[in-house]
TrEMBL record:
Domain SCP stretches: 61-212
InterPro entries: Allrgn_V5/Tpx1_CS (IPR018244), CAP_dom (IPR014044), CAP_sf (IPR035940), CRISP-related (IPR001283), V5_allergen-like (IPR002413)
Name this polypeptide is given: Peptidase inhibitor 16
GO cellular component, one term: extracellular region
Keywords for this protein: Signal
Signal peptide from the UniProt entry: 1-21
Length: 279
């Protein structure tokens, strides 16, 4: 008998309820879970398979780096004038992992995401019962771009199509990212065909994907960065830092919550100063 492998995929979006997506891209090639440069330089590796076991600990540093870089790669592809660079956030990682651990294919409550690390948080969810690549959730969400009508007066999806996951991924000022993953033997709010599946949850701060609003402004990259908050341009993305995010940034964020808290405080202070200057 010829064995047949069925690839099934579901995605959820925080602000518009449940949705089903059918991405059209092919399955990407994989590579070993080995790091360049003796275990510290992860920037050259682009694909990695998630080990098929119970991931109670969530993404490791290497996997988190891949997923973060894939988000920033897609954001840079939009050629936006005001797009922020994303950085890994410990608080959002923890909240996403805590929810992924529930193995529930439904969104967390608005109250759960109302204030995490100082952010009101957006949420994308990905469920897959096949061998998962670390970057596959981001690729699936970004593939919805083909259903988004940027130049439409109401900046919305094509009729009966889903594009909200894409909008959240590329929302211009959603600059904090944290994701969790769980290998679930059974999944609440999903059929039995999704037993033994991966559930990936990503949290974004601040939240985006507002209805009837453009996720970013098209134009010369970095031409509309806020000079008080994100005065630098990194790979076409507005950044608070003059250089690329250090290789150990995720390790530092995971090891010290003060890293995230201090960044949030600095951004809030600079925003307040900018507001006072305008008034």
């Amino acid at each position: 008998m010829v064995a047949m492998v069925i690839f099934l995929e579901l995605v959820l979006l925080a602000t518009t309820g449940c949705s089903v997506a059918h991405p059209g891209e092919t399955h990407l090639p994989t590579s070993d879970l080995t790091a360049d440069g003796g275990g510290t330089n992860f920037r050259r590796k682009r694909h990695a398979e998630v080990p098929r076991y119970n991931r109670s600990g969530g993404f490791n540093e290497y996997e988190a780096t891949l997923l973060l870089e894939k988000h920033n790669e897609y954001r840079a592809m939009e050629n936006a004038s005001n797009m922020w660079i994303m950085e890994w956030n410990t608080y959002l990682q923890r909240s996403a992992q805590n929810y992924a651990d529930k193995c529930n294919f439904d969104h967390s409550s608005a109250s759960y995401r109302a204030n995490i690390g100082g952010y009101k948080v957006g949420e994308n969810i990905h469920l897959a019962n096949y061998k998962l690549l670390v970057t596959r959730p981001a690729t699936s969400w970004y593939s919805e771009k083909r259903f988004y009508r940027y130049y439409h007066a109401t900046a919305k999806c094509e009729p009966k199509k889903t594009c909200g996951h894409y909008k959240q991924l590329v929302w211009y000022n959603s600059h904090a990212l944290g994701c969790g993953i769980k290998f679930c033997e059974s999944v609440e709010n999903a059929g039995p065909e999704y037993n033994n599946s991966y559930l990936v949850v990503c949290h974004y701060g601040p939240n985006g994907n507002f209805r009837f609003a453009w996720p970013y402004r098209k134009g010369e990259p970095c031409s509309e960065c806020d000079k008080n908050i994100t005065p630098y341009c990194i790979r076409g993305l507005c950044s608070p830092w003059p250089d690329e995010t250090p290789e150990n940034a995720i390790e530092a964020a995971s090891g010290s919550e003060n890293f995230t808290a201090q960044l949030n405080i600095i951004v809030l202070m600079l925003t307040s100063l900018a507001t006072l200057k305008l008034t």
